[in-house]
Amino acid sequence: MAGNSFGTIFKVTTFGESHGEALGGIIDGCPAGLEVDLSLVQYDLDRRKPGQSAIVTQRKEPDEVKFLSGIFEGKTTGTSIGFIIENTNQKSHDYSHIKDSYRPSHADFTYDQKYGFRDYRGGGRSSARETASRVVAGAIAKQLLKNIKINAFVSSVGSLHLAKNHEELDLAVAETNAVRCPDSEMALKMENYIKDIRKQGDTIGGVVSCVIKNVPVGLGEPVFDKLHAELGKAMLSINAVKGFEYGSGFKGTEMKGSEHNDKFNTDGTTRTNYSGGIQGGISNGMDIYFRVAFKPVATLIQSYETIDKEGNIVKMQGKGRHDPCVVPRAVPIVEAMAALVLADNFLLNKVSKI
Amino acid sequence: MAGNSFGTIFKVTTFGESHGEALGGIIDGCPAGLEVDLSLVQYDLDRRKPGQSAIVTQRKEPDEVKFLSGIFEGKTTGTSIGFIIENTNQKSHDYSHIKDSYRPSHADFTYDQKYGFRDYRGGGRSSARETASRVVAGAIAKQLLKNIKINAFVSSVGSLHLAKNHEELDLAVAETNAVRCPDSEMALKMENYIKDIRKQGDTIGGVVSCVIKNVPVGLGEPVFDKLHAELGKAMLSINAVKGFEYGSGFKGTEMKGSEHNDKFNTDGTTRTNYSGGIQGGISNGMDIYFRVAFKPVATLIQSYETIDKEGNIVKMQGKGRHDPCVVPRAVPIVEAMAALVLADNFLLNKVSKI
Amino acid sequence: MAGNSFGTIFKVTTFGESHGEALGGIIDGCPAGLEVDLSLVQYDLDRRKPGQSAIVTQRKEPDEVKFLSGIFEGKTTGTSIGFIIENTNQKSHDYSHIKDSYRPSHADFTYDQKYGFRDYRGGGRSSARETASRVVAGAIAKQLLKNIKINAFVSSVGSLHLAKNHEELDLAVAETNAVRCPDSEMALKMENYIKDIRKQGDTIGGVVSCVIKNVPVGLGEPVFDKLHAELGKAMLSINAVKGFEYGSGFKGTEMKGSEHNDKFNTDGTTRTNYSGGIQGGISNGMDIYFRVAFKPVATLIQSYETIDKEGNIVKMQGKGRHDPCVVPRAVPIVEAMAALVLADNFLLNKVSKI
Amino acid sequence: MAGNSFGTIFKVTTFGESHGEALGGIIDGCPAGLEVDLSLVQYDLDRRKPGQSAIVTQRKEPDEVKFLSGIFEGKTTGTSIGFIIENTNQKSHDYSHIKDSYRPSHADFTYDQKYGFRDYRGGGRSSARETASRVVAGAIAKQLLKNIKINAFVSSVGSLHLAKNHEELDLAVAETNAVRCPDSEMALKMENYIKDIRKQGDTIGGVVSCVIKNVPVGLGEPVFDKLHAELGKAMLSINAVKGFEYGSGFKGTEMKGSEHNDKFNTDGTTRTNYSGGIQGGISNGMDIYFRVAFKPVATLIQSYETIDKEGNIVKMQGKGRHDPCVVPRAVPIVEAMAALVLADNFLLNKVSKI
């Protein structure tokens, strides 16, 4: 109710502040009997963690997940799965500069207004550190989905746009470079651009694209819980996201119906896929693909003026180790949220007909 | 659970097929004591209904709503509000052409696969006729929101884009033309373009923009139920929607943080509003604005080949009275869904602090 | 959220006041492809309806249900099932005597306090007339449950207690008499007693027992949603219910573990069934049985003193056609609620393991 | 969905097996700004913990709760509250005797059937050890409820029934003896009886009563979520509970309406309180009181025959340190669940009227 749960049957609830004792969550509704490979969970956490390359924040957080329940003798038991990730890096910081002031385009002001006060340490609950718990839950969801393959990758950094579409690309290339762009040449350009932005103490936005293959026909619950509506909510709930489009997206608005309609092959597949693998809110078996817009990170390593709680103008100096561009680390988060949506709809679909 | 409900406290559940007996719904969680002006409900229904202008479908459906419970002596009682809209136009149609065949880019195929069979009459539950119930519920939500003003309007039809942003426009102009575009000159161009498209038996996509003013600070429930995530889901659940962006949206991905950050005024408002009125998933009191992408309607008044249930190629001829462009009638639907999100979050926020 | 929905996957939401236009509801989550026998729905409604015998209220309400969606060509489509029951008897009453006064042990006072005012006509939403919608939804649930047989019956009226337990009785006998007691001799005593009570203008409480046979092993979702916890909530939500016990119930508290433990047969069934067919919140395949306590109806055909809204003492005279004892008509309601719980858990259990 | 959450706005989700790493939970929806006294949480945990007296299990579990998030500078922040209780006593046990066999009247059989296998160590998730998390959440809920006072106590052990009702008793006496019975003389009898039962290696059932004072008028959400229906579900979800009654309960079924109706005083209070503080599912400001039936613990320190997974008869010997009677330790659990229901309804009621 208060917004810390996601899903209906396969449901994850999370907790944890950026600089509290620990983050964690509970996965409820994961079917019993699923063999869990914990190394795959840690693998995704490592893809998200700080300090993994030269173009992300250099903070040190090991981000080791500990499962506390719900898995026994290597398999899920059908009971709730509790897990925690201890914050080892949370101590001895000095927050006096943000305690009583509001950083522009952060959640400092709105949390204070909504809740009356806030845990100001490193952004508290509003920090993207929270997404570590999502990655854990998503990694379990991926294992439930077996053959369904979810691949996210960076398709834009600032004005650098990947021209090729996902069918023309070898998506496996994305994991071979720090940017997570499946075109090595473009990846290098993006990497250099991000380094340049960092030197300026500035940040830049970008786009993460995602392709989901081998989706069974029938996932999605019309009318309000259409599959793409759930995917959209999932993506928009990630920190810094400003937009979501699937299939033809915004470009599709410029097309005529006679161009946009996906003609059927005799086996029920379609010749084109402007639909993005979803018709009427239900998967049609074609690839699902979508794009997620991330704004530039709000924390700049620059000095600037802002206001304090009383409305006085104050000077602030951005410091610390922050991401100059969030999209490389957002890739596993996008995949995790997609996995949560798919897992939930996979289970919901099991009770669609008698 | 099966997708026919929206909201957590202010919750609407709907039912009804395009050509069944009636559509309708139940609003649960509307606080008691709200004076309801039923003419405003009918006003919004009339804005959505077929036959209202030369550029929308010429079907005749009076779309009169009848409230059955939950309102007494002009006020809500706090109990569930039931309502129906009778389908007066549902009889004597011939559906033999779609009964056993799958129209491209419709939900015929996916409904059949998911549910084993389908109500093929006029698209059944997958028809946008379902949104009439949303408009009713949204019209009640609007009245709960009092001073919060929600204005949607058409900002693109195909490649015709409204250049001005919402602050440069008189939004009231939108309701003075058939397209619902707040720039009369552009409205005329769009109208002529849609007429042209119709003559071709074709359809065209478009974009509906929405601005919400006078939003109190504090609406939105992090982390999964961020206000814009709920708005995004709401919009993506509307038929034919392919994308959603708010604030700076996809364009914001090309900006630097130093450009994108919204500097505070001393009263907590901001000088720019790239954030789109939401920070960290919580409203900050600035205007909320977003854009919703609608694909071209899939029903063409042309002949084409498709497949039947057995995978045979069959010839079909689009006929009937369909919308050449969905966005003019989508305007009140976008507003209704926005109102549902706001009303729900308005109530949720009342229990955020002691 | 505001309490008018029941269930998680097989979910019913209802609306309607005693003397409004209509009652009704929406069933969401019923799987597609269920062949529905509408005459069985009407059969259960008729078992609940007023005027069916000399010992129930003599009001005339035909209680005919009309399905508006979700059923097509005799089968459920997987979309939401809307239905209404028109109130044909709601007009021209005089409510001046209860408009401003609070009848003792009714909900007049609490509704007024909670909601600020109330629909005073016939009790409004607090009237047991609301349960008609439950019976409709329950009758659909029963059909989903196929072999699972739910039989409720009257086991007490006042101090007249049926001595035999359910295994010693032919439960089919219950439907052969007006009281719905499966022991004809006792039924006659109860019937005469109720007639006597009515002559006094008084009312009397009673107990409805329920037995569920052929339950598959595995229904129920620990830990909070144990099968008996859901059954208990379902029963306690029925008007006038004061208690619920299953299996050994309150008498089981006086037993020793060595007496109470149900020893296994080699096939997994048990020799005794103090557990009431549920272990750890999950059905074990034995008969589920429980008892539901109904208080005496609060409406007396007597004159009495009470208070008005301003706290003044006022005289009231009970009048109209009311039930002297609610349990005969409560039998189909108990069955309906049990069916809703079982249907929901039947579906939930389909996603318990991979 | 899978049953590990309770509540709608004030919602707790729990995890943890009897002999896993840790138990714990997440409280979502607790309003911000609540000053939390952690010693009161530990106090209730200590009332529940093993080894506290001679008549409960002599296992040693410190049951220390650690809060991981959602509380900052002594106050709740409005974000989710995560907590864990480490299992310090979970190692080096020998479970070979229950691994492949089903103990009578335990959940061994049903868990195995539902989930395909089970964590057999100490009952896994079906162990009442799970209720420690409930007590933590309930202790936070109690603090939110401020003046509302919830007092549970033991009113029966086997056939030893407390004759006096709650108005004739000093409930504070309950916490002065090991049984938690508010009548010292009866407490001594019960204590001796339990000791006697233990010597026999047997167990005995009992009843926990609960009284809630200072309840504001208006709590409860008709029609399905009536306040007593939520209380009933809450109590029935506790391990070993077989029945629930409130107000006049099962005895009320033998009363006439003319006896049972609670006459009003001019201030809206009532002269009698057969209603148990709830009318039409909504609190009326009078004391809420109810009784909860607990069966005898199934684990006996005796030898007996049962079956293994293959249906073979096997000999088992109950061993270890178990409770001979569960009700003394159930008292804080009953209070905790009542507090969760009240807190949730307290918040829900804040949005009942405009």
What features would you describe in this structure?
The structure is a homotetramer of 354-residue chains. Chain A has one domain: Chorismate synthase, AroC fold. Helices cover 25% and strands 21% of the residues of chain A. Chain A has 8 helices and 17 strands. In chain A, the strands form 5 sheets. Chain A has a 5-stranded antiparallel sheet with strand order 1-2-3-7-4, covered by helices on one side. Chain A has a 5-stranded antiparallel sheet with strand order 10-9-11-15-12. β12 of chain C pairs antiparallel with β12 of chain D, so a sheet runs across the interface. Chains A, B, C, D: Homotetramer. Chains A, B, C, D: NADP(+) binds at residue 48.
Describe the secondary-structure layout:
Four copies of one chain form a homotetramer.
Chain A: E1 5-6, E2 11-15, E3 22-28, H1 38-48, E4 65-67, E5 71-72, E6 75-76, E7 81-86, H2 96-99, E8 101-102, H3 108-115, H4 131-145, E9 149-157, E10 160-161, H5 184-199, E11 206-213, H6 227-236, E12 241-246, H7 257-260, E13 278-279, E14 282-283, E15 288-294, E16 303-308, E17 313-317, H8 327-348
Antiparallel strand pairs in A: 1-2, 2-3, 3-7, 4-7, 5-6, 8-16, 9-10, 9-11, 11-15, 12-15, 13-14, 16-17
Helix pairs in contact in A: 1-4, 1-8, 4-8, 6-8
